[in-house]
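Weekly sync, protein design subgroup
Attendees: M.S., D.O., the rotation student, P.L. (late)

Item 1: inverse folding check
M.S. brought a backbone from last month's batch and wanted to see whether the design step gives back something sensible before we order anything. D.O. pointed out we never logged the input encoding, so this time it goes straight into the notes. Structure tokens as presented (134 positions):
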């Protein structure tokens, strides 16, 4: 006769909350400054303005630039949106420059490279992403 009981696996919540650390080997771990800033930048770039309640200007809304065409005007608008958003909502960094360049051989894509310094340490960092613009 087959047993109907299955082994009881340890339950793991599929949704993690970034503000509350999950125990790892019996200790609570928090992200370091580099990781925290990178996560914040990613959130700022992907959030559309008006998406968060009570914060209508929060986010660069890079998704809003899809389908506008890979033109100099679109690339400058992307650059301006990124610089303005990071300056307004991420006080832990100083933005040195934001490059938004076309990708050779991929006429509908642009490469974004953000160069910044951590205010606390002065350490230079950069983060990049490829966007569909056309």
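Designed sequence read out in the meeting:
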């Amino acid at each position: 006769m087959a047993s109907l009981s299955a082994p009881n696996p340890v339950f793991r919540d599929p949704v993690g909350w970034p503000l509350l650390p999950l125990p790892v080997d019996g200790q609570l771990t928090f992200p370091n400054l580099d990781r925290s800033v990178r996560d914040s930048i990613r959130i700022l770039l992907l959030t559309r303005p008006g998406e968060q309640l009570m914060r209508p200007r929060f986010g660069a809304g890079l998704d809003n630039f899809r389908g506008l065409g890979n033109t100099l005007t679109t690339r400058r608008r992307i650059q301006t949106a990124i610089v303005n958003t990071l300056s307004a909502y991420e006080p832990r960094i100083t933005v040195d420059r934001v490059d938004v360049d076309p990708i050779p051989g991929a006429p509908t894509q642009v490469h974004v490279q953000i160069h910044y310094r951590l205010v606390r340490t002065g350490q230079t960092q950069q983060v990049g992403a490829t966007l569909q613009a056309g």
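Discussion: The beta strands are 23-24, 27-28, 93-103, 106-118, 124-132. The two ends are 62 Å apart (CA to CA).
Action: P.L. to compare against the previous round before Friday.
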